[in-house]
Design goal:
Flavocytochrome C3, Chain A, domain 1; alpha+beta; FAD-dep_OxRdtase_2_FAD-bd; eight-stranded mixed beta sheet; FAD/NAD(P)-binding domain; six-stranded antiparallel beta sheet; 2 domains; FAD-dependent oxidoreductase; FAD
């Protein structure tokens, strides 16, 4: 038995076994603490979005310039300067820290070789993206970190959800699990429970999205957010997120529609009208439109395309091309090479004419016919006066049969959660630190607006280490 009514006690208890949780556990252990990690999922599905992510972290070659870059990306939604300072310093240490753990760190040669926001001041700090073995996805980062946690003698208890934080007059002192077990944390508790993308009510309330499919873990249900709120935590940038073009194929997480092949397609709204430059670069959830960046997509729409597009290759990238996402990695889903299996399943609908295609989506045939004709005329002229689509992407939609696919905002992650400071301490609504409570990773992402490639993992590793060290130091002092 532990003291103070606890069944057992540790120096630091970490909730969540993804990148932030593993980094916190390792950071605490490297500081001499006795650590326990709890994850609500079973071992086969634990690890949150880290397990199904691209698994890379951006290479920060200049901490001073990276401060400028982060401020620019936050735009009109700044985060506290102590957070900026810690982020800049600690993200620059990620690769060396991973190498010290024994990771075969290698730079990705295919993805995120340069910043997405090259026009932002400070982007010259971005030197590419490092991964485990120089390879994207495939759970490589999660597998390495789980192994490192085990090698450092840290226990992970799976299928053990936290029910509430235990507090006294000194702050947060432990955790009570769902089965009623009370576990003390002398230095503190680190929340690394992920986001809330898989919680429909929170998604509606904070993100203003209605039932979007998710790209990542179905375990991301905002558990840590509720734990923190119960003890008085303030919240920050709860409306920030990333969505990309996707689709729902059945119950559960959805699929990413990359549209990397031919360009014989256009987007139309439910009325059958174009509404955007279909090829605008999606910079981790934002496109540039009307002179500013905005979230995209936010509502369902339709992808209309022709036979050339259908035959050009899969609309959704295969695991061999982009090994990312719950559907591909955890369910081993395979999209057909020529899109015919998806036609047979009814996900892609076909018609001999554009007018007949309109009937399939409930749009006025004349409206959709005019939309396609105007777009095709732009293709012939080599100039899109409506939305400024680049001439080299203007592929006419003119070869029958014609196809339509219902597109949904695919929710990759949420960003907001309990507000924290540069020491990863959770803050209350008065701005004071809640003693003994820390947060790192997607539950409390640094990013209040835009973010670049490899930023989420970089943030999770950086503030995970900080949270673990801080909690361990509090245990020693206590």
């Amino acid at each position: 038995m532990g003291g103070k009514g606890f069944d057992e006690e540790f120096d630091v208890v970490v909730l969540g076994a993804g990148a932030a949780g593993a980094a916190a556990a390792l950071g605490a252990r490297q500081s001499g603490a006795r650590v326990l990690v709890l994850d609500k999922a079973d071992e086969s599905t634990a690890g949150g979005n880290t397990r199904v992510s691209g698994s890379g972290w951006f290479i920060n070659r200049d901490p001073e310039r990276s401060k400028v870059f982060l401020r620019a990306l936050c735009g009109p939604y700044p985060v506290a300067e102590d957070v900026v300072e810690t982020w800049a310093v600690e993200t620059a240490r990620n690769s060396d820290w991973m190498r010290a753990l024994g990771a075969p760190v290698g730079q990705s040669a295919q993805y995120h070789t340069e910043a997405e926001y090259l026009d932002a001041d400070g982007s010259d700090c971005y030197a590419g993206m490092d991964t485990v073995g120089g390879r994207m996805g495939e759970g490589l980062l999660y597998d390495f970190l789980a192994g490192a946690v085990a090698e450092h003698g840290i226990e992970i208890r799976y299928a053990t959800p936290a029910h509430e934080l235990v507090t006294d007059q000194t702050g947060v002192t432990g955790v009570q699990t769902a089965d009623g077990r009370r576990i003390g944390a002398r230095g503190g508790v680190v929340l690394a429970t992920g986001g809330f993308a898989a919680n429909p009510a929170m998604v509606r309330d904070y993100l203003r999205l209605t039932d979007p499919p998710i790209w990542g873990s179905p375990h991301a249900t905002g558990d840590g957010h509720r734990l923190a709120q119960r003890v008085g935590a303030d919240l920050w940038h709860m409306d920030n997120m990333m969505t990309i073009t996707g689709m729902r194929v059945d119950e559960g997480p959805g699929l990413y529609l990359a549209l990397w092949g031919a360009h014989h397609y256009l987007f139309v709204d439910p009325d059958g009208r174009r509404f955007v430059d279909e090829t605008a670069q999606n910079r981790h959830g934002h496109i540039r439109r009307g002179g500013a960046y905005e979230h995209f997509p936010l509502r369902p729409f339709h992808l209309v395309f022709d036979e050339r597009m259908r035959a050009a290759g899969p609309l959704s990238p295969t695991r061999e091309v982009l090994p990312v996402g719950w559907k591909l990695l955890m369910e081993d889903f395979r999209w057909s090479a020529d899109n015919t299996a998806e036609i047979e399943r009814g996900w892609i609908r076909r018609a001999d004419t554009v007018g007949e295609l309109a009937a399939l989506i409930g749009a006025d045939p004349g409206t959709l016919e005019r939309t396609v004709a105007l777009y095709n005329r732009a293709c012939a002229d080599g100039r899109d006066d409506q939305f400024g689509r680049s001439p080299d992407t203007l592929g006419p939609v003119s070869e029958p049969p014609f196809y339509v696919l219902d597109v949904a905002p695919l929710l990759g992650w949420s960003n907001g959660g309990p507000r924290r400071d540069g020491r990863a301490r959770v803050l209350d609504t008065d701005g004071a630190a809640i003693d003994g409570l820390y947060a790192a990773g997607e539950i409390s992402s640094t990013y209040s607006w835009a973010k670049d490639g490899g930023f989420h993992i970089a943030d999770a590793l950086a503030f995970g280490r900080v949270a673990g060290r801080e909690a361990a130091g509090r245990a020693v002092v206590g």
